[in-house]
Amino acid sequence: MLQALLSGLGRKGGTRGWAFSSWQPYLPLAGLLSATEVVSHWTAVFEKRGIPEAQASSEYIVAHVLGAKTFQSLRPVLRTQPLSPWQLQHVQKLSSCRLQRMPVQYILGEWDFQGLSLKMAPPVFIPRPETEELVEWVLKEVTQSSCPMGAQGGPLILEVGCGSGAISLSLLSQLPQSRVIAVDKGEAAICLTQENAQRLRLLDRIQIVPLDVTLEGSWSHLLPWGPMDLVVSNPPYIFHQDMEQLAPEIRRYRKNEARRGKMPGPRSCRGLARRLGLRPYSRLCCESSCSQTRAEN
To answer: Where does the Methyltransferase small domain start and stop, copy by copy (predicted)?
Structure first.
């Protein structure tokens, strides 16, 4: 971790400069650094170390320590007033994690998706911006459909590979009559979806099931819930031969078997949907890479 030391404090007209070394509790100097100055410093450090999105990373970390979602949402006075010794130390601790290429979402422990604040933790996938587009497309399909859905007036949705629960919980929050069955083979994903559903008070409309749908006969565990109106999946679609080309943020912190091409792609999801007995007017929505789609076709 790093500690900011100030030199030439200007009592005789000098300018202020920074030198950085291993963290030591120079507490009397801590109050001389504002949030804006700390962001500038860590942005420079991240850039020097080749950290992607250096300024955004720095701003998110400082804002988080100050109790805000984004640096831009901070009140002007909070951007210019000195940080406390504890705040500086906390920023330094989180920034050292970023220097190890830990994704910002894992560092903060939460991330917004479709207006929901979701807990994030490795090795569970961080939802991509493209996944929000998938959710919006699904919502459009459901709201524009003239076909009856579900026994309770809303669609019965199956999510294959729920991860953090981002897709399932977004659909539940925006489709008040819907019900979701969310499955994943990873224990960490099951636990994280459960926790996020509880935080958002949506546990009463979601069934979270530990299940590896790639195993023969696994789909039979889902039959008691009846025909599905919608199957949605955003499976990890990174093949083994592509692993070494990934950024360190992915290689180091999101390692699991699913990342190596063992989760279902479009063809597998279509097969699962047929076995589950989708209604004639049902939809299958699956996000995949172009390379995976070509490989499966």
So the answer is: 157-244
Q: Where are the domains of the chain?
A: 2-100, 113-296
Which CATH superfamily, name and number, covers 113-296? Vaccinia Virus protein VP39 (3.40.50.150)
Contact 292, 260 (CB under 8 A): no
- Name the token pair of 95: 């920034």
What b/e readout covers 227-263, taking b as 16+ CB neighbours within 10 angstroms?
ebbbbbbbbbbbeeeeeeeeeebbeebbebebbebeb
Tell me the residue ranges of DSSP E strands in the chain: 2-7, 17-22, 110-113, 116-119, 156-160, 179-184, 206-210, 230-233, 283-286
Among the listed residues 43, 27, 19, the one whose alpha carbon sits nearest the alpha carbon of residue 86: 27
The structure tokens 């790639």 sit at: 214
Phi, psi of 218 (to 5 degrees): -65, -30
Cβ neighbours of 157 (radius 10 Å): 28
135: its two tokens: 């959710």
Tens-place pLDDT, residues 80-130: 999 999 999 999 999 999 999 999 999 999 999 999 999 999 999 899 888
pTM above 0.85, yes or no: no
Q: Apex CA 192: angle with CA 290 and CA 175, to 5°?
A: 70
Which residues, 6+ apart, have CB-to-CB distance to 115 below 8 Å?
173
